[in-house]
Amino acid sequence: MKIKALGTGSAFARPPLYNASLLIETKAQKRFLVDCGNSVPLGLDKAGLGPKDLDGILITHIHLDHIGGLEEIAFKNMYMLGGHKTPLIAPKAVIEGLKKRLMPALWRDHTGRLTLEDYFQVKAVDPDKSYKLGDFSYTFIPVKHVLAFPSYAIYFKTPRRRTFFSADAMFDAELITRMAKISDVIIYDTQLFTGGVHCSLEELQTLPKEIKKKILCHHYGNNYKQFKPAPMKWLKQGQVI
Ligand SMILES: [Zn+2]
Known about the structure:
Layout: E1 2-7, E2 21-25, E3 31-34, H1 40-46, E4 56-58, H2 64-67, H3 70-80, E5 86-91, H4 92-106, E6 120-125, E7 130-133, E8 136-143, E9 151-157, E10 162-165, H5 173-181, E11 185-189, H6 201-204, H7 209-212, E12 215-218, E13 233-234
Parallel strand pairs: 3-4, 4-5, 5-6, 10-11, 11-12, 12-13
Antiparallel strand pairs: 1-2, 2-3, 7-8, 8-9, 9-10
The structure holds zinc ion.
Residues 61, 63, 145, 168 line the site of zinc ion.
């Protein structure tokens, strides 16, 4: 299993940074996308990939910088790819949120309302439960982000590498410390200023050095080069870990 940073940008980042997303490739050459924000279809274009090249899409929460590209994929599936249905994997609460946010735009008319299942193979999973996918397992883990709806991190595990991907999360020293004990790499939300619903670089710097050495910072703004994350590192767009 290889994890590629398809996008490392925040909600407000502009190209060349795309919205935070991962592309996972398994030994059997299956590909899974993690999160699909507004600018992620541009990142997929750059990687030469379309909906049919994806064996699944995992979604962590319903902010548009994590789901805004799904409408394009849904319409491509329905109208350009003969009804192809990309597997869509998320915790039940996220699936319910997707139905509310995506569906009004995906209904064809008032007489024949379509469902999310008409566009995707929907798989609703339980948080804190491990599922196998190709040569890795994944577990959605609840994180603190906004109060309005649930948000999740994902813990990826292979016999060789354990990776904790926070997606969007506030600073949570207890969670980071707990996950650092069972992770080789931590990809954590890193806002370049403190405040709001994201973890900041300043907050991450308060962690012990041995934990920081495991952290790759993602979900940052275009001005990230003005900041020094050491001993943490930036997760660079296109980087394979
Ligand atoms: Zn968010």
